[in-house]
Write a structure and sequence with these properties.
Layout (H helix, E strand, L loop, with lengths): L1 H39 L12 H12 L1
Length: 65
C-alpha cells in the first residue's frame, strides 16, 4: 500500500514539473515573440487592401447604386 502512495506522489510531482516546464517554455516563446513584434515599429505607410478583379467589380457595383 505504501508503494502505491509513493508512486502516486511521484506521478503528481512529475506532472507539476512538466506543467512548470511548459509554462517556462511558453513564457520564453512569448518574450521572443514580443521582441520580434516590437522590432517592426510603426508602419511607414498604411496598408492597402489588395484589389482583385472580383473585388473591384463589387466595389464599382456598390458605388453605382
Amino acid at each position: 500500500m505504501l508503494q502505491i502512495y509513493v508512486a502516486v506522489d511521484k506521478l503528481q510531482k512529475d506532472s507539476r514539473n512538466k506543467e512548470h516546464v511548459r509554462l517556462v517554455d511558453l513564457k520564453r516563446h512569448m518574450k521572443a515573440l514580443e521582441k520580434v513584434i516590437s522590432s517592426f515599429g510603426e508602419p511607414a505607410v498604411e496598408a492597402m487592401p489588395v484589389q482583385t478583379p472580383t473585388r473591384t467589380a463589387d466595389l464599382n457595383l456598390r458605388a453605382n447604386h
